[in-house]
Write a structure and sequence with these properties.
The complex is a heterodimer. Chain A is α/β, with parallel strands linked by helices. Chain A has helices spanning 12-19, 29-38, 55-58, 64-72, 91-96, 131-141, 154-167, 182-194, 227-234, 256-263, 282-291, 293-311, 326-332, 342-352, 357-370, 378-382, 402-417, 427-430, 466-475, 490-536, 538-560, 566-570, 573-614, and strands at residues 3-6, 24-27, 49-53, 79-83, 119-125, 146-150, 173-176, 198-202, 217-220, 244-250, 269-271, 456-457, 463-464. In chain A, strands 7-8-6-9-10-5-11 form a seven-stranded parallel β-sheet, with helices on both faces. A two-stranded parallel sheet of chain A has the order 1-2. In chain A, strands 3-4 form a two-stranded parallel ribbon. Chain B is mainly α. Chain B has helices at residues 2-7, 10-25, 43-67, 79-86, and one strand at residues 36-39. Mean pLDDT of chain B is 71; it is low at 66-79. Classes of the chains: A alpha/beta, B mainly alpha. Strand 3 of chain A pairs parallel with strand 1 of chain B.
Chain lengths: 615, 87
């Protein structure tokens, strides 16, 4: 006999060739149905026995459409075995499997506790923003343990894995969630099976049935969806005869879960964590997010996905997204701003009024945001399926991943639309709302940038436009006292002052011109006089040259013998007298020439000033 | 079977043993087509059950070879022979 394993993420073509020769199949619902639909020569008419492991999950509405389609392909006469730790006894589910005379067999039906006796279960109340710090502290404290950490959704697990990995806790870290590729999933699974000290971050896909050997701790970071999920999650530890510990972290708003668990025969021990002593990892996370924009995006998605998951949970007594500190949670992950939560806004709108054009748009955006699921898998087939639950019977269902969550989303949208609008709104509100965009005008250069306005403060400290202040200063009493009575008159005052200034300028201009003319004339006359003087005194000029020479000689002589005045006296008297005279004249000329011109200029200036004063 | 439960998930062992035993009793042959299906919600669980099935099937095959009585599939064999038959 030959057996085959049919699961998503593997080579379909190869499976198609081989599947018709098989006798026993182990399969996930999606891939099995795919083969039933697509593969030729594959039929199950001879089927003798059908085994449903985790039957309550399989019979859950998340898999309902797929399972019904599979059952249509199977013969009615067969033996059916259902296995689960939290078995459903709902007749409708059993009828779907066309069971006749079902036999119910339970190992611990009458035991006091729904969980294994060697399991120590604890619950601690930790506010949502502190959970990450608590997780970090827990990991640092249990480095040599094998720990399984459960979170609600794939995004959360992906972000936590990446962030904690980069923070280096000192223990191997793996993650397991529905968005991973199959080889990585298998790798994480086998590695965690074999390791002795490791942390596996997982969604609820690892909650059921998986038999990891020797898990020491099960840490539930978020509140489980229901009691059945809790029982399955903690069932990963304390297998068979071994012991184990489980810790559940609950937000203060989720306190009702403890009571629900108590009614489901789960005995929890309350512990308290010293939250003040737990160090914050937010600063290091902030650094990581700044360095890596991809991680930042993951963090944003983590927040949105978690809150959406809480939002679509069926048990509204426990889960209330409005009571969670979303902003604090976002900040604790190192984000500076909390991401937008569209689904809450949409629900508000849905409660107010029917879905409009706007809603559809947003829905499209939402879908886009959600991203493509890994194709051709069982998860894909779950997309349109809505889940619903009867709260009375403890009935199992856990999350394969976001796909089922999406199904529930669709359901909640349907529910939101179902109730009639509570009140009629004015027509204006029904219109698609205008999108107001705060856009800063594009500035290309400094020229287009505004430079502010100039304000002049007067003595009293009253701010005024510069022109006005000037006008008041000039016209108002000459003391700069503002005439607060008639401020608009300043324009006339300004124009008057302008005319005054223009007249003054004209007169000054005329004065300047005249002065320049005088100066030019004086210069010309001076030049003429010089020329005349040169023509008259050619000899004098020659003398000057000689005098210069002679004077220097004399100088030398007199320097040579100041006491020898006899030599001078030796010279003939008329020559000496003449020389002395010319020298004096030359001295006079030298003195008069620099001194004469300034006196004339000073005269001119005085005249000009007198004229100015007259004007 | 309790021995197997030490190594594997109990429900998987029970289900798989039941399945294999039933087909064995019916003297199922490869030409008869699909005789049994196990459906699980997650892939990892499917892998785990498949491992169990391989082990159980191999042991049963070995056992059947040893005792030559397919009507009494008893899972009794030494670890060494189990290993040898799985290889």
């Amino acid at each position: 006999m030959s057996a085959a394993l049919l699961i998503g993420g593997k080579d379909v073509e190869y499976e198609k060739q081989k599947v018709s020769q098989m006798n026993i199949l182990v399969a996930t619902p999606g891939r099995l149905l795919q083969h039933m639909d697509e593969t030729p020569l594959f039929d199950c008419v001879n089927l003798q026995i059908l085994v449903l492991d985790e039957a309550d999950r399989i019979l859950d509405l998340g898999f309902a459409a797929t399972l019904d389609a599979i059952l249509d392909n199977l013969p009615k006469r067969r033996q059916t075995l259902l296995f689960s730790a939290t078995q459903t006894r709902r007749v409708s589910d059993l009828a779907r499997l066309s069971l006749r005379d079902p036999e119910y067999c339970a190992v611990h039906e009458h035991s006091a506790s729904a969980t294994p006796p060697r399991l120590v279960q604890m619950v601690a109340t930790v506010p949502l923003p502190q959970k990450l710090h608590a997780l970090w502290a827990f990991l640092k404290l249990h480095l040599n343990h094998k720990t399984l950490v459960f979170a609600t959704c794939c995004r959360q697990v992906a972000f936590l894995h990446e962030a904690l990995r980069q923070l280096r806790p000192g223990v191997p870290l793996r993650c397991l969630h529905g968005r991973m590729k199959q080889p990585r999933r298998m790798m994480a699974y086998t590695e965690f099976c074999e390791a002795s000290a490791m942390v596996l971050l997982a969604t609820d896909i690892a909650a059921r049935g998986l038999d990891f050997p020797a898990v020491d701790w099960v840490l539930q970071l978020d509140c489980p969806e229901d009691c059945a999920t809790y029982i399955h999650r903690v069932g990963r530890t304390a297998r068979y005869t071994s012991a184990g510990k489980a810790l559940l972290l609950l937000d203060p708003s989720e306190g009702a879960m403890v009571d629900a668990l108590a009614t489901a025969k789960v005995a929890l021990k309350r512990t308290s964590l010293n939250l003040e002593r737990i160090p914050s990892v937010t600063p290091s996370l902030e650094g990581l997010l700044t360095a890596d924009p991809g991680l930042k995006e993951q963090a944003q998605r983590c927040v949105v996905a978690y809150l959406r998951a809480v939002h679509v949970m069926s048990d509204k007594a426990v889960f209330d997204v409005r009571r969670l500190d979303a902003v604090g949670y976002a900040h604790s992950l190192g984000l500076t701003t909390a991401p937008r939560l569209r689904f809450i806004q949409r629900e508000r709108k849905g409660q107010q009024k029917h879905a409009g054009v706007d809603d559809e748009e947003e829905e499209a955006v939402e879908e886009e945001e959600e991203g493509p699921q890994s194709g051709g898998e069982e998860e894909d087939l779950l997309r349109p399926v809505a889940r619903q639950r009867v709260s009375t019977a403890p009935q199992g269902d856990d999350d394969e991943d976001d796909a089922t969550l999406l199904g529930r989303l669709g359901m909640s949208a349907a529910l939101a639309e179902a109730p009639p609008p509570s009140r009629e709104l004015p027509v204006g509100d029904a219109k698609p709302r205008e999108k107001v965009k705060l856009r800063i005008k594009a500035t290309t250069g400094t020229a287009s940038r505004s430079r502010g306005t100039k304000i002049v403060f007067d003595a009293q400290g009253t701010p005024r436009a510069p022109l006005e202040a000037l006008a008041l200063e000039r016209s108002g009493d000459g003391n700069g006292r503002p005439e607060s009575g008639h401020a608009p008159d300043y324009k006339a005052a300004v124009s008057a002052r302008f005319a005054q200034a223009a007249a003054l300028r004209a007169s000054v201009d005329a004065e300047d011109k005249r002065r320049e003319r005088e100066l030019r004339r004086a210069k010309k006359m001076d030049k003429k006089r010089k020329v005349k003087a040169r023509q008259n005194g050619v000899l004098g000029a020659d003398d000057g040259v000689q005098f210069g020479n002679g004077y220097s000689d004399d100088d030398g002589d007199s320097d040579g013998g100041s006491d020898g005045g006899d030599y001078e006296d030796d010279e003939p008297a008329p020559v000496a007298a003449k020389r002395r005279r010319t020298a004096e004249a030359a001295h006079e000329g030298m003195r008069a020439r620099p001194g004469g011109a300034p006196s004339r200029i000073a005269d001119l200036e005085a005249a000009a000033l007198a004229r100015l004063a007259r004007a | 079977m309790p021995g197997l439960c030490l190594v594997f998930d109990a429900s998987a062992v029970v289900g798989v043993c039941q399945l294999v035993e039933k087909l064995f009793r019916l003297r199922w042959s490869p030409e008869d087509g699909v005789g049994g299906i196990v459906i699980t919600p997650t892939r990892e669980l499917a892998m785990q059950i498949f491992d169990t099935l391989r082990c159980v099937g191999a042991a049963m095959h070995h056992c059947c070879q040893c005792t030559c009585s397919p009507s009494l599939p008893v899972l009794a064999c030494s670890a060494g022979s189990l290993r040898a038959s799985t290889r």
